Amino acid sequence: MRNRPVLFLLLALTISAQMPHGISGGVVVSQERLASEAGAQVLREGGSAVDAAVATAFALAVVHPAAGNLGGGGFLLSRPANGQPTFVDFRETAPAAAEPRMWLKEGAYDEERHHHSLASVGVPGTVAGLHEAWKREGRLAWPRLLRPAIRLARDGFPLSENQAASLAAQLPEFRKHAPTLAQFSREGLPLRAGDRLVQRDLARTLVRVSRNWADFYRGDIARLILRDMKANGGLLRSADLRAYRPVRREVLRGSYRGVEVLGAPPPSSGGQVLIEALNVLEGFDLKAAGAGSPAAVHLASEALRRAFADRARFLGDPSFNPDIPLDRLLSKAYAAELRTTIRPDRASVSAPDRFTWPRDRPDTTHLSVIDRRGGAVSLTYTLEDSYGLKRIVPGAGFLLNNELGDFNAAPGLTDATGLIGTPPNLAGPGKRPLSSMCPVILVKDGSVLLVSGSPGGRSIPSTVLNTVMNAVDFSMDARAVVDAPRCHHQWLPDRIQVEADLAEATKAALKAMGHDLIEVKKQGCAQVILVRDGRTEGAADTKRWPDSGAVAE
Ligand code: DON
Fold first, then answer.
1. Are 357 and 492 in contact (CB under 8 A)?
2. Which of 63, 260, 332, 444 has the greatest number of CB atoms lying within 10 Å of its CB?
3. Contact 290, 284 (CB under 8 A)
4. How far is the CA of 501 from the CAs of 81, 459, 518, 519, 520, in angstroms?
5. Which residue among the candidates 364, 463, 536, 542 is catalytic per the annotation?
6. Higher pLDDT pick, 532 / 503
7. Nearest atom, ligand 1, residue 458 CA
8. Active-site residue 414, yes or no?
9. Is 364 in the pocket of ligand 1 (CB under 6 A)?
């Protein structure tokens, strides 16, 4: 990789380039500038958006271990230059030993087992998923795409303040598992900003993946995973790893004010929540209301309230829930019905019937790519919690996910604390837990307009909705699309989450309408590309994660 530090420093925050005839240069935006640079270099060498996304994702597994991963899973939405969108579901899958009552111990719900034990580890999908996307849409050689990640793991990279603080905050957890502590500390003491993080085992694993990706599922890497599982009571077995397949799915499609929306289908709820909420909003004049106005936040919240209620009721792994009524939920007619239940000046009330949500935790990461031919990729992947199970596979150097925590608690176990026992998202063998991840691509007049996505658990579709409104309704530039204060409503609890920098007058007006508000410092971490009038702008969410970076090819 060529080293052009000064140039990239200048480009890192927001980059834009004049494109006289459509896209003439690509952009990569991710939560770590070093990873974006890895992807941008691939674009410079003529790689496709998928090539760049794969290189960036592998690099994130090294430089952003909180959520970048080999041991987790996610979703890759692509719209290649030929215009035919594709979607790779590489969500983790429950092992054969999974069953709906697996989170109960002597009849009582066992939260520790559900969220923090080796039993919560799903078969990782990332390696197979990235390979699946590359197989169809890659232009460069597979080993080339892993090269930057291997180098970053083997030679190390200097930790930023932010990265050092993130690792230091996890030390008490890392101390519970000696190999993890050894990888992410200096002999048990916190690494500091400027220290190099070297991950030799991870480098070796990446080399194996670069030679033969299937090694992860049936070779030396699989053996290391299985040894850990057997020694420590995990449930994954050789047959589970061997059976893992990424799934190519139909992209979920919608439209919003004449713009085509390409979104994530189940087992993510991201596309359903986003498109259903946008359909509702289409009937209101948000432009007249204005960005950040009480009316805009109120209407977005009411739309989200309804879309999230449907999510809770209907969504789950489609292989186990063949009757999810997506056609109805995503129809304009249904949105019109929902609109009649919204008052312009008054908060609705979420009827807390028997449906609520599985728990989500705040860590995941998103990357957006566009290549010079106009191909785009929107990729969100996760370990579930920050640093997943906070436990590496000994000898393999990558963190395990705790994604099965996204399954519901147990059949019939629905209570006031927010546990849920409804069927669509109960654990089962080979089943994928329901997700909120929401990679999205907007297309206008046949060309990509916006690539967006974010971490944030259940707030993800809301964050993405905010970026879509900012681009489409409020005609913001990319920087403003990312920086504008965000809001979120998820039906239950019945309140709007707002970022603290939303105007005080708006907050007061929302309260006067009967909304409960909860303030957070930041919501999500959106990585956005906007193409307008032949100009491509990448905007990284440096406001919410300072290491984020947009890098042009
Ligand atoms: O798939 C999901 O929706 C969750 N496991 C994602 C967790 C998450 O986003 C936490 N994010 N910041």
1. yes
2. 63
3. no
4. 38, 17, 12, 9, 9
5. 364
6. 503
7. 3
8. no
9. yes
Residue 113: per-residue pLDDT: 96
Tell me, in angstroms, the distance from the centre of ligand 1 to residue 546's CA: 20
Does residue 360 have its Cβ closer than 6 Å to ligand 1?
Answer: yes
- Band (421; pLDDT cuts 50, 70, 90): low
The band of 420, judged by pLDDT with boundaries at 50, 70 and 90, is: low
Q: pLDDT tens across 464-494, in order? A: 999 999 999 999 999 999 999 999 999 888 9
Provide the pLDDT confidence category of residue 40 given band limits of 50, 70 and 90.
very high
Q: For residue 189, how far is its CA from the centre of ligand 1 (angstroms)? A: 29
Fold for the domain defined by 250-360+459-524: Serum Albumin; Chain A, Domain 1 (1.10.246)
Portions of the chain given CATH number 1.10.246.130: 250-360+459-524
CA 361–ligand 1 middle distance (angstroms): 6
Cα(436)–Cα(427) distance, rounded to whole angstroms?
17
Q: Could you tell me where the DSSP H helices lie in 4-109?
A: 5-11, 33-44, 49-63
> How high is the pLDDT of residue 423?
83
361 within ligand 1 shell (Cβ under 6 A): yes
Write out pLDDT tens, residues 49-90.
Answer: 999 999 999 999 999 999 999 999 999 999 999 999 999 999
Mutation choice for ligand 1 from 385, 437, 438, 490, CB with most ligand atoms inside 8 A? 437
Band of the pLDDT at 389, cuts 50, 70, 90? very high
Residue that has been written with the tokens 């999974």 in this structure: 98
Residue identifier of the C-alpha nearest atom 9 of ligand 1: 457
Ligand 1, atom 8: closest residue by C-alpha: 457
- Return d(Cα 181, Cα 510) in angstroms, integer: 46
**Ligand 1 proximity of 456 Cβ (cutoff 6 Å):** yes
Contact 132, 88 (CB under 8 A): yes
**Whether residue 382 has its Cβ less than 6 Å from ligand 1:** yes
Query: Which of 363, 386, 460 to mutate for ligand 1's pocket (most ligand atoms within 8 Å of CB)?
Result: 460
SS percent in the chain: helix, strand, coil, step 5: 40, 20, 45
Which ligand 1 atom is the nearest neighbour of the CA of 91? 1
pLDDT at 400 exceeding the cut of 70: yes
What is the b/e burial string over 116-129, where b = at least 16 CB atoms within 10 angstroms of the residue's CB? bbbbbbbbbbbbbb
